[in-house]
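Quick check before the chapter quiz. The format below is the same one you will see on the exam, so make sure you can read both the input and the output lines.
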Amino acid sequence: MTETTLTNDERRCLQMWFRQAIAKLELEEVTNVMLENYPLEDETANAHKSVVTRRRASRGKLSSHIKELSV
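Here is the expected output.
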């Protein structure tokens, strides 16, 4: 039997493919461990309330009064 050798380019391609596959498996494992240790919380219970805009206090009378005192 004759063994076919891989070219350097094919070897690099396989190395990158294996690294990507290993990284994907590690990510899935970490995700599963995190979900076991820190389960997802109900989003509706911790939802932020909508921000209510407030009216600005009128500054007209107070400002002019202070201006009159400083003159």
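If your answer matched, good. Residues 8-37 form the longest helix (30 residues).
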